[in-house]
Amino acid sequence: MHLHTLAPFALSFPLALPQDSSFLSKREVELPVERALAPLAAPSNRPVAPGLVTWHADLAAACAAAERSGKPVLLFQLLGRLDEELC
Amino acid sequence: MLFSHPEIAARMTQGFECAWESVRPAPRATIDFGDGRVLERTLHGNVATYFCTSRGEVYDLLPGLAEPREFARRLDQAVRLARGLSQEAGRVVEPGRARPAFPGSAIDPGDPRARRSSLVSAWHRSLAATRGAPEPLERDPVNIPDYSKMRVERRIDLSLAPPLAAHDAETLRLDSLHNRRERYPLASELWLAHPFARPADITRAVYRTLLGVDLDDPFLGLAPDVLGGEVGRHGALAPASAQ
User: Fold this and answer.
1) ipTM score of complex
2) How many separate helices (H) and strands (E) can be counted in chain A?
3) Considering only CB atoms, which chain A residues are within 8 Å of B36?
4) How many alpha carbons lie under 13 Å from residue B3 in its C-beta half-sphere?
């Protein structure tokens, strides 16, 4: 059976997939390839630890801590987030 | 990553109350190889470090990336400046017995705020004067060289040598050199124009003037180079989310 003969059924029942054995075997072959390529095809920004430094939540929290400790404040600004892989 | 270096992280945590903040999402450069493989990178170096009082007033700033040794040196200088500021704030000067903090200084030595400003201004004026110098001078208004201390610290300095691939280390070294000759003196000029400002008040100027990044431009000033003049021909492009 050719795919074009299934077209009317596909329109009426969009979730009905052809269950022919040759289609499944093709899928079985392609699945490992898709899995191997997935991490490359969809880059994500993974969360990472922002180094070994002890960080306060924000500048205000650092300033409040500085009032108590007497230490100066260090504020690091960047494009992106320090706790993400791509920054 | 600089903040994963044990010695740097220890100096930062012991010497400062640290915080980080994102000024905008990171621009990403994506290369689609057309076969399902995609390489994604970000543009590095668009960072700034501010040293502030507990009231959030900037007294020193460090634009761009720095080698670990250079960064450690500036951390130490920032700690010394903070100590100097703290001493000036607590020093009581009797009227009539006051002497200028620096020879030739016109400030009122009885005014703690003026003394504090004079101390940091002297530091930034000395840095600003080194712009373009082949070997930036190591003038530090609150630093007295202690050679025995330097001998002890030499081992620490050696441990701060960047454990990078030779090419990356050379790139970072050249970037640090550019920072010392150009960006740091310009940063001091910016501080002198905005003494003890809050970081939020000078962030845009720091990025535009010192790092060449216009935070008000959705294309960060890269459009003419990246898009080849398309923006100029078709007018401002809307951000992808608005299209």
Assistant:
1) 0.74
2) 3, 2
3) 37, 40-41
4) 20
Q: Which residues of A touch B10 (CB under 8 A)?
A: 52
Question: What is the spatial distance between Cα B169 and Cα B172, in angstroms, rounded to a whole number?
Answer: 5
B35 to chain A: closest CA residue:
A41
Tell me if A78 and B47 make a contact (CB, 8 A cut-off): yes
Spell out the residues 6+ positions from residue B27 whose beta carbon is closer than 8 angstroms to its own.
A79, B42, B43, B220, B222
Beta pairing partners, B20? A76
Residue B130: what residue type? Answer: T
Question: What does the radius of gyration of chain A's CA atoms come to, in whole angstroms?
Answer: 27
The model's pLDDT over B141-189, given as tens digits with 9 standing for 90+, comes to 444 455 555 555 555 555 665 555 666 677 777 777 888 888 999 999 9
CB-CB neighbours of A54 under 10 Å: 13
Residue with tokens 């993400």: A84
Interface test with A, best of B4, B18, B38, B52 (most A CBs within 10 A): B18
Q: What is the CA radius of gyration of chain B?
A: 21
> What tokens does A27 get?
């899928």
Helix (H) or strand (E) holding B36: none
Token digits of residue A75: 């504020």
Q: For B57, which residue in chain A has the nearest alpha carbon?
A: A73
Query: Would you state the structure tokens that stand for residue A73, as one six-digit string?
Result: 């404040």
